[in-house]
Amino acid sequence: MRSVLLTTALFLFAFAQAQKKLTVTKDDQLKTQASTSIQANYDQYKTMAFQIWDYAEVGYKEVKSSALLQQTLKDNGFTVEAGVAGIPTAFVATYGSGSPVIAILAEFDALPGLSQTNAPEKISAGKDAGHACGHHLFGVASVASGIAIKKLIEEKKFTGTIKVFGCPAEEGGSGKVYLVRAGLFKDVDVAIHWHPGNDNGVTMTSALANMSAKFRFRGISAHAAASPERGRSALDGVEAMNNMVNMMREHIPQETRIHYVITNGGKAPNVIPDFAEVYYYVRHPKRDQVQSIFNRVVNAANGAAIGTDTKMEFEMIGGTHDLLLNRTLAEVMQKNLEKTGGVQYTAAEVDFGNKLQATFGFPAPPVANAGIVKPVKIEMDAGGGSTDVGDVSYAVPTVGLRSATWVSGTAAHSWQAVACGGTEIGTKGMMVSAKTMALTAIDLFLHPELIEKAKAEFKQQIGDYKYKALLGDRKPALNYRD
């Protein structure tokens, strides 16, 4: 009897191990299939990315960029709903049915004033904008990832729904906030995103909450020399406001970031400006603090108007939450990023990278660092940037990564970033993220317990907070780049 029991136990143990090995084999098989499928279409995705790089359309004006991504998804069997949340260039592309519902975020807006060729020296491409944050790569990688998952659902390798969200105007327009506010993430279980960068790693650093507005001063025009007493300078109002805000910097939390540009300061020195405008960003790691500091900026604007005998009004342009981090999802994504690996450069690309780094004005990490995958590390600070992905992270468990689409040491929002994005240095990094997102989605489709664990972590983080958009109930600022 003891022999029979021992034999049975050994058999059950061997069977369990075989089943475990079979499961791992299935996961790996599907991941290999997805990665191979994405890589097989590299030339198509590279062409798309370069096309959007060339379009270089700014926030809410991304008509051709959005159309290209939408058509690609339609051609691959997705049902596309365009013009969602009152935004002409926003869309939701869907394939499959039932749970789980996995969303992949796609961006595609450029930045004004950063026109650049794909050369390692500063040469304007003669345009009004450039992809200095790599969103041309962002959108294409997300579409590629979504298509790879769609094929697996189509082949009945697993069931569920894949959605690709076309998200315009991340750069200051807060596009995703309107998608969240419209309830488009209500049926989503997990959201996946990525961002171009100068290294490879899972995002475990939060983002700064952000509120932005345009402050408009109106005065009275007059001849600046012949009858200055008859005028009231709107530019004086802007400058008085800026002076007061700059003095305020000494008396706000040190983590705060405040930036502004004068978008209209008059037309001629001998004409007292009757209109002037200044565009402000206010950032802080905590959403309640950013609201408080923004209110003080508004007070400075009101005081400036009183002191210069002008009138002031302001328009909220954007408002984004900080970014909630989900450790459960980050650990899943980290394994898949390590499986995918970093970026390997040709000799010509290394030479390009060395030339580009020579323009930085500071020592840069080795170009070969693009091949390294950084370990998961939670950063206590909130980083230096803001993103409307933050609002998505308050609606649904969210996870993201960055991949090396720029030469090591390259700053975002620089001409060097635009240059890299127009070469295969950019598109190779794009493929790392496309594959990693697809592999992460596969884990979530095959292992729903991961989703439940991520949701439990999400609920604990949210607590009793009730989401409310920081930009209020305003309609999308479709002309904020005008």
UniProtKB/TrEMBL annotation:
Residues 1-18 form the signal peptide. One of its GO terms (biological process) is folic acid catabolic process. One of its GO terms (molecular function) is dipeptidase activity. InterPro entries: Amidohydrolase, Aminobenzoyl-glu_utiliz_pB, Bact_exopeptidase_dim_dom, Peptidase_M20, Peptidase_M20/M20A_hydrolases, Peptidase_M20_dimer. Residues 211-304 form the Peptidase M20 dimerisation domain. Keywords: Hydrolase, Signal. The keyword Signal applies. Gene3D superfamilies: 3.30.70.360, Zn peptidases. The keyword Transport does not apply. GO terms for cellular component: cytoplasm. This is Amidohydrolase. It comes from Lacibacter sediminis.
